[in-house]
C-alpha cells in the first residue's frame, strides 16, 4: 500500500451489529480480556530480553557481592569494638581507633559500590526497556488491521508507555535488591549460626509469620495490580477518544456526558488502585510488629545467655545487628514482590500484544509486483469478518486498466469491504481476486500495497512540515517533485500563502489547516507516489461546494490513466465513472454506467432522484 494511505478513525458500529468492526483504522472500545499468564513464565520470558546485558549484570553482581560483604563485616567489627571494653571498664583505645578507621572506610567503600551498582543498573534497565519498547512498536506495525479494529488507540498507548514504565521500574530497582537481599540473608544467617545457634533459633521463630503474611498479601495484590493496569488502559482510551473527537463532543453538547463517563472509569481506577495500595500498605506496619517481636525475643534470650557466661556482650550486639540485616531483606523482599506484581502485570500486557498473530507471511513463491498496470478481477468472492455473518456473497466484476469504478449503496452494504480485500487488509473467504492476471495472494504484500493509493474522507497528516507530509509516499523525492505534485493537486497556491510555505510545520493531524487543504495535501501525497490503482473513499463528502471543485479537478488529474475505485454517497460525483456498481447486502444488484442505470429505472435511479429531490427541497426551504 502506498505510504500515502490515510487511516481515519471512523466510529465502529455496535458490537451486536453484523459486519466490519470499523473502517480504515477504526476501533471499538473494550474487547476480550486475556487471562494473565503465570508469574514464573512471565519472569522467564522477560529474562530473555536481558540478552547482552547479562555480562553487565555480572559486573553489577560483583559490586553487590562486595557491598554485601562489607555489610556482613561491619556488625562483626562493631561486636569486637564493644568487647574491647573489659569487665573492669578499661578500654583498649588503640584497638578501638583501628576499628573506627576500618568501619569508616567500609562505610565509604559501601557507598561508592552502591552508587556504581545503581548507575550501572539504571543503564541496563533503560536499554532493556528500550529493546522491549522497540519490539512492541515493531510488532504493532506487523499486526493485521483486524487487530486494531478491536482495540482502542489509548489502550495500546498505555501498553507502550505505562506498562513498559512499570517493567523499567521493576528491572532497575527490584533486580539489585533481590541480588543484595539474597546475599545478605544467607550471609547474615551463617554469621548468626557462628555467633550463637541458640539465638539463631530464637530469631527464626517469627520467620514463618513473615512468609505467611507475604504470601497472603501478594495473592491479593497480584490480582489488584493487574486490574489496575487494565483500568488505566481504559482510562487512557477514554481520554484519547474524547480529545480526538472534542469538536464532535462540543457540537452535540456532550461535555457533561463525557465527563460522567470519564468519572465512571476514573472511579473504577481509583477503587482498584486504592485497594491495591491498601493491601500492599498493610505489609510494612505488620512487618514492623513482627520484627520488634523478634528483637525482643533475641534480647531476652541474649541477656539470659550473657548472665550464664555463654556469650559476650559484643557478640550479642553483633548478633542483633545481623538479625536486623537478616529480617530487613525479608521485609524488602515483601515490598519488592509487590513491585514485581506491578511490573509483571505490565509485562504480561505487553506480551499479550507480542503474542498476537501477525499478518500471514507471503506465500513461499510470492513474486514482487513490478510495474503494475491495474487490471482488477473479482471472481466469486465471498467474505465475512465473522464466520457466521457473510458480508460479501459471490461477488464478481472486472475493472479494466485505467477505468473508474464507483461503488454505491447503503452503509454496511460491503463497499469498503471490497477495498479491504483488494488491498489484503483481509483475505477472501472464498473465490479469488486477480491483479494483472495473478491472484493477489501470490504477490508479496509490500509490493501489492505499494501499487495502491488512498484518498479518504478523513485525511490523516503527521506532525511535521508540509513537504515531509507530501513526501510520505515517496521519501526520496526531490523538492521539485514535491512542488510539482502540489501543483497538480491544486495545493500549491494555498501552500505558498503560508508564512514558511512548504516548510510550514503542521500540528497534530494538520489541525492548523482546513479540511479542504488537508485533502489537497493527501491528493498531492498520492500523486507523488504514482500508484497504479487509486481508491477514493468519500474523498469529497465533507467539503464545501467551492472547495469540492478544486478537489474534483485534482482528483481528475490523479485518476488520469489509473484504475480507480470510488466509494461515494454523493452520486453527482460519480456520474462520469466508467462503471457504477450498486452494492446491497453484500451483492452487486446493478451494474453499468450512469446512463444505463438511469434507463433501468431500478435502485440507482431511485437513489439518484431521491438524493436530488432532497437537495431541491433544501434549496427551496
Main sheet record: 6 strands, mixed
Helix content: 55-70%
Cα separation of the termini: 45 Å
**Which structural class is indicated by helix and strand composition?**
alpha/beta
Unreliable spans? 1-36, 615-621
Mean pLDDT: 77
Strand neighbour order, sheet with most strands: 6-9-10-3-11-12
In CATH, the homologous superfamily of the largest domain goes by the name: ABC transporter type 1, transmembrane domain
For the record, the CATH class of the largest domain is Mainly Alpha
Q: What does the overall shape look like?
A: elongated
Total beta-strand segments: 12
The total of helices stands at 20
CA radius of gyration: 35 Å
Q: What's the CATH topology label of the largest domain?
A: ABC transporter transmembrane region fold
Q: How many distinct domains?
A: 2
Classify the beta-strand content into a percent band: 5-15%
CATH architecture of the largest domain: Up-down Bundle
Outline the structure in words.
This protein has 621 residues and is α/β, with parallel strands linked by helices. It has 2 domains: 304 residues, ABC transporter transmembrane region fold; 245 residues, P-loop containing nucleotide triphosphate hydrolases (Rossmann fold, 3-Layer(aba) Sandwich). It is 60% helix and 10% strand. The strands form 3 sheets. A 6-stranded mixed beta sheet has the order 6-9-10-3-11-12, with helices on both faces. Strands 2-1-4-5 form a 4-stranded antiparallel beta sheet, with helices on one face. α18 links the parallel β9 and β10. α3 runs antiparallel to α5, α5 runs antiparallel to α11 and α15 crosses α17. The longest helix has 50 residues. The protein is elongated, with a radius of gyration of 35 Å. The two termini are 45 Å apart. 37% of the residues are buried. The N terminus and C terminus are likely disordered.
